[in-house]
Amino acid sequence: MENTLEITGAIITLIGSIFLFLGSLGLVRMPDIYNRIQTGTKASTLGTILTLLGIALMNTDWFGKILLLMIFILITNPVSSHVLARAAHYIKSPLTKISVTDKLVDN
Q: How many domains is the chain partitioned into structurally?
């Protein structure tokens, strides 16, 4: 049973690492700061949660602490991303030319 948990944990950790890699690739490829923030946040949240879940399955003694870390990441990562996007909009960081609308512009 324990060997199965270790193999499952290793596979989930690998999948999480792939999501983290794809998120970093998205940071390089996206055209403006708003798209980069969105890409980085979604991929890093999912990648970190999967990586931590894999580690928790491999080390079941740490499961409670890792669960608290996952909850903390689920709460703080989107909030910090939102604050960064609002700050970028406040200092008037330009949108990419293919952006259709800016709903935060004062009418």
A: 1
Token duo for residue 84: 């960064």
**What pTM was computed for the model?**
0.85
Residue 49's domain comprises 2-90
The whole-angstrom separation of Cα 1 and Cα 65 is: 22
* Continuous H helices in the chain: 2-29, 33-58, 63-90
- Count other C-beta atoms under 10 Å from residue 14's C-beta: 12
Instruction: Convert the pLDDT of each residue in 56-78 to its tens digit.
Output: 999 999 999 999 999 999 999 99
Measured CA angle at 59 (ends 58, 60), to 5 deg: 105
